[in-house]
UniProtKB/TrEMBL annotation:
CDD domains: URO-D_like. This is Uroporphyrinogen decarboxylase family protein. One of its GO terms (molecular function) is uroporphyrinogen decarboxylase activity. Residues 28-330 form the Uroporphyrinogen decarboxylase (URO-D) domain. GO terms for biological process: porphyrin-containing compound biosynthetic process.
Amino acid sequence: MNKHEWIAGILAEKHKKPLPILSYPAIQKLGTTVRELIMSSTLQARGMKIVADSFPTLASVSLMDLSVEAECFGANIIVSDGEVPTVSGALVTTPEEAAALKVPPLSAGRAGLYVDAIKRAKELISGRPVLAGVIGPFSLAGRLVDVTEAMILCYEDPEMLKTVLDKATDFLVNYIRAYREAGADGVVIAEPLAGMLSPDLCAEFSEPYIRRIVQSCGADDFLLVYHNCGNGAVRMLDSILNTGCDMYHFGDAVDMREVLKRMPQGVVAMGNVSPANEFLGGTPKSVYEATQALLRDCAAYPNFVLSSGCDIPPLSPWENIEAFFRAAEEFKA
C-alpha cells in the first residue's frame, strides 16, 4: 500500500467509510473474554477478521491495549474478563531507577504475541489496510512512573522524566518496526496522557518523542496515525501536527468542528462518537442520532473521517455498533 495514494483516495471520496477503533467487542462473537483475548494471537486475529467481515471499515484496527508496553518493562497489570487491561502502581520512582531502567526485548512480555496477531490478521484480511496499535511515549512514561507523578515531574524533575521518555521511545521504535516486518500497513499511536498537558508541555514532553518515532519508522508504505483523546487536544493542535504523522484521531472530549477548523485541508482528522456514552451506554437510536449529528456538523470538511472517540469498550452492544454503521451509510449531506 502506498499511503499517500490511499490518503488521497480518501480525501477524494464524498462518502467515506468510517474508521472506528473497533476490536474488543469481537469477544461477543468469539464467545471469549478480554482475559483470553489478550493472551492469544489466534483469537485476536480471528476477532479482527470478524469485525472486517461484519462492517465496511476503512481499515482493520488491532486492540488498543495500553498495558502491553509497560508490562514488557516490568509493570504490574490488572486483567479482567470484561474490561481493557490497566497498569497498577509505579515501576520507576527515583532518578536512579530511571537511569537503571533497561529497554526490554519484545520477548519480555506480550509484545511478541501482539506482533504475531497482526501477522495472522494480514493472512485473513484483504481489501483494506491492517493497522496495529501502540501506546505513545509520554503515555507509556506515565504508566512507568505513575500518571500523576508524570505531571509533577514535568516541573520538578524534567530530566528524570526525559530519561524514561528516551527509553520508552527506543522500545516503541523497536516494537513498531517489528509490526512493520510482520506485515502491518501502519500503526495507531495512542497518546492520551498528552491530552492532559499544556501546549508548551506537550511540545516538550510528547511531540519530539513522537517525531522521533515518525523519523525512525515512517515509510511510503507504512501509515502512522496519531490518537489523542484529551480535552486539551485543540489547544495543542500545532504541536500535534508537528509530530509529522499521516492521520490524526481525536476523542469525544473535543468538538470535532473546532479541530477541523484548524486542520490543514489535506490532512485527515478522525473522530469522535462517544465510546462510553453511546457505544456502551447508549441505544441503537441514540447512537444513530449522535452519528448523524456528527456527520452533519462535519459535512463541510472533506478531510473528516467518521470514527469512535476512542476504542469501543468490549461489552458495547453489537446493535449499537450496527447502528453507527447504518447511520454512516444512510447519511445524506
